Amino acid sequence: MGRKWNNIKEKKASKDANTSRVYSKFAIEIYVVAKQGGPDPEGNQALKFVLERAKTYNVPRNIIDRAIDKAKGSSDDNYAELRYEGFGPNGSMVIVDALTNNVNRTASEVRAAFGKNGGNMGVSGSVAYMFDSTAVIGMEGKSEEEVLEILMEADLDVRDIMEEDDSVILYAEPDQFHAVQEALRQAGIEEFTVAELTMLPQSEVKLDEEAQAQFEKMIDVIEDLEDVQRVYHNVDLGE
């Protein structure tokens, strides 16, 4: 799974390059999940997860608090959760998750982002079956053996665990996310390099130089859309 983790790191680094965009997207997501399930993360697992992920992106506390306070108030902003699926050059596959208060606008913008950059929108289910929903948790300061021992003591069996560079990366079932994090915290691990519920491709494709440049441009355009929260794909972007 090493290549998949590299792709996650590359995507995260790309998003970190534009912090104002990242913070804006998190503010909307936090507002939506707090509005839906309540402002207390202990009683709202979806909010708890988003806040954990926000920490790995260094989202300022004031942005988080403002979004939660807005959810507590009388705001009637309504957002729909949408998933689009599509194709890029040479059989590449893309999943786009969005939160929007204008479905028609978002659908039009995502369709245009695909179509103007060598891709095309697919129907629901045309791509998602080739991806697996996965919890990915990364940390530094522990070896693979030490992390395995922590998980064994907590009676947790994850999909995969590996060392890469100075990090240990865990791949687990989505419903194990909080249990795994809690076990690691109990063992003294407080900081995580990644804490994501993501969609990992079952296999990856490599593109030639021209197709990859076109694909990366398409992904950049999609990710820049105001309503798009996350983008997943099956392209091996290389080193």
Question: How would you characterize this protein structure?
Answer:
It is a single chain. With about 240 residues, this protein is of the alpha+beta class. It folds into three domains: about 70 residues, Arc Repressor Mutant, subunit A (Orthogonal Bundle); about 80 residues, YebC, transcriptional regulation domain (Alpha-Beta Plaits, 2-Layer Sandwich); about 70 residues, 2-Layer Sandwich (Alpha-Beta Plaits). Helix content is about 45%, strand content about 20%. The strands form two sheets. A four-stranded antiparallel β-sheet has the order 3-1-2-8. A hairpin with a 5-residue loop joins β1 and β2. The radius of gyration is 18 Å and the shape is globular. About 30% of the residues are buried. The model has no long low-confidence stretch (mean pLDDT about 90).
